[in-house]
Every structure is written in structure tokens, then in C-alpha cells.
Amino acid sequence: SSWYAVTYGNGTFVAIQASNTTSAASSTDGVTWTLRTMPNASAWQSVTYGNGTFVAIQQSLTTSAASSTDGVTWTLRTMPNASSWYAVTYGNGTFVAIQASNTTSAASSTDGVTWTLRTMPNASSWYAVTAAPTQSLINSQSIQGQTIQYVSTNTYVVGLYDKSITFNGTATCTVTLPIAGQYPGREIHLKTTAAFTVISASSNVFPLATNTAGTAILPATAGKYAKLVSDGYFWIIMEAN
Fold it and tell me: What is the DSSP letter of 160?
């Protein structure tokens, strides 16, 4: 079919079609895809992700749009007027959609559900819109550094403000890392004080020597450390001993 746009967020790729169909697709790895169903048959033109929500818009002189929290189940939404909605993006807490129908109309939304009509500086066919990557307040505070966390349990969920974590337990610790796509540029420092491994709960860590994601973070040797940095997709070990 006419696969027209693709985006990524929260561990999922989403692709949409512009062939007056209800068909879409999602994938967790970009390799194996599963057919999904849009809320109506239309020319789905553009899709984006932000703030935990996928948003898709149509280019068929309609008020219809759609949103999804997982890229699997979609809900019909309403744009502020019927037009050729052509592109949508997300940045700084706001979704923005533009039209390609020689108009001054655009739209914005903070949640991808309720949209407000906006005015462009002149009447034209607006074809593309983007936003520079920004970090949330939580992300910025995390990168600036917080107090060191001491972990002695066998499992640990990395918190929003965790930057430096010392593992001082007696057995392997499995850590649940934040979703890398939500924290591009964030750093997390980990170290051990005893001879046990630290592993990720998911295969989302790139080791020093390869670009193959796995679960290994720290080997079973006391005094090991690693600095993980999110590239927006995975956690990359940038420094380790």
C-alpha cells in the first residue's frame, strides 16, 4: 500500500498509509511489523510522537485525526476545521499541525486530543513543520546531578532524578532503566562495591565494543563502573572499567 509516514516513540515504531484505508502498522524493532487499525478510512498523511501519545492527521479535507498511547489502539479525534492537514510534530509540550490548502489555518494541542485553531502569518500551502529537541524539566534536573543512591536489593527501578547509583548488595541486581526515547542525552552512572553483576531488565544497553543491544551493564567484579548515556533510542555505555 501507500505507506506514507513513520515515527518512533516509547519503544515502538508506527507507520501509516495515505491510500484511503484503515490500515496502519507498528513494530518494536523496525523489523517485524503488525497490522493495526485506524479509526476510519482516509489518507493518513503524517504521524508523530510526544508526551506519551502518538498523533496522526489526515490530508483528505476532513476534521478527523487520531491519537494512541501505544501505537496499537487508535481513537478518533477532531481537528478545528475541515482541511488538508498535511504535517504534525511535537515539541516543548505542544503538538502542532499545519495545512497544505492555501490557508492561514494551523492547530495546536497539548495532549493530541483537543485541538485549537491557530493562525499562520499568511495564506499558503504549508507542507512541513518541526521542533528542535528539548529536554523536560525532569530530564534537565536529572542530568545536572542528584544525590547518590545506594542499592542493596536484587531489583531496582531507576528513578526520574537518579544520576549516580552504587550497588552494595550481595547478589545480581536487575535494573529497570528509563525509556531511552524519553530522555535523550541523559546520563546515569553506576558502580558496584562487591563481586556481583548488574544487568538491565530489557535488552536496551549497547556495550563499549559493539552496537548490539543486550542486558549486560557491570560484570561480577567489585569496583566496576559504567556511564550510560541515552542516544534517544538505547542506553549507550560510554565509559567503563
Answer: T
Among 8, 2, 9, residue whose Cα is nearest residue 24: 2
- Taking the C-alpha atoms of residue 190 and residue 117, their distance in angstroms, rounded to an integer, is 47
Using DSSP's 3-state secondary structure scheme, residue 72 falls into coil
CA neighbours within 13 Å on the CB side: how many for 224?
Answer: 15
Q: Give the containing element (helix H, strand E) for 96.
A: strand 94-99
Q: Cell digits for 71?
A: 501505537
Distance CA(18)–CA(121), nearest Å, equals 28
In Å, how far from its chain's centre is CA 221?
34
CB 85 within 8 A of CB 60: no
Is 85 in contact with 99 (CB distance < 8 Å)?
yes
- Cβ atoms of 101 and 84 within 8 Å: the answer is yes
Q: Is the pTM of this model over 0.85?
A: no
For residue 30, give the amino acid letter.
G
- For 51-97, write each residue's pLDDT tens digit: 889 999 998 888 999 999 999 999 999 999 998 999 999 987 899 99
The H or E element containing residue 157 is strand 155-157
